[in-house]
Response regulator (Streptomyces argenteolus), 223 residues
Amino acid sequence: MAIRVLLVDDQPLLRTGFRMILEAEGDLAVVGEAGDGLQAIDQVRALQPDVVLMDIRMPRMDGVEATRQITGPGRDGPAKVLVLTTFDLDEYVVEALRAGASGFLLKDAPANELVQAIRVVAAGEAMLAPSITRRLLDKYADHLPSGEEPVPDALQTLTEREVEVLKLVARGLSNAEIAADLFVSETTVKTHVGHVLTKLSLRDRVQAAVYAYESGLVRPGAQ
């Protein structure tokens, strides 16, 4: 079945461009559009998309609050949010990730990256452009704890190996890179990541990365 996509951006020309790109792919279907966050919430309820391509800066309700209402705590719907960012201008991307977004994409990304990003998010992998994710977290380090806060009790539920895996996820490593670093198989890494997400009640790898920074397990800029 095709991946159902909802386009959310206050610029009609951008939505048209995205639609043309996505509708050229046999496994993607644009099921609707919205020009602001309020419309996005209504469209998600009505259309039940798999992936919401979400702009951040919009009138009436921005993409952060819309993301929070679509995928945030207490929400268990099928929709995953892929945030669109200009990177240098959007200071709210970390907040969108905290709110429940499954990843982000630069607005000037090539068409093939847009298509692949939607497929990855729909598949639940969620950790898009790991190096950029980490750079973004470092850029907005002032949004994150200083590391002086006590370590959350939830981290105590993780095994030593799971903590290692969580640190590497936060550094932006893929499953293959983590497997090579720890000298284990990718299947083993996937199992560890699954355990981490379950024990910490996290939705995906992006939230795991943010959690690692927020908890002080990983310091911004640390190698």
Remarks:
- The chain has a mean pLDDT of 82.
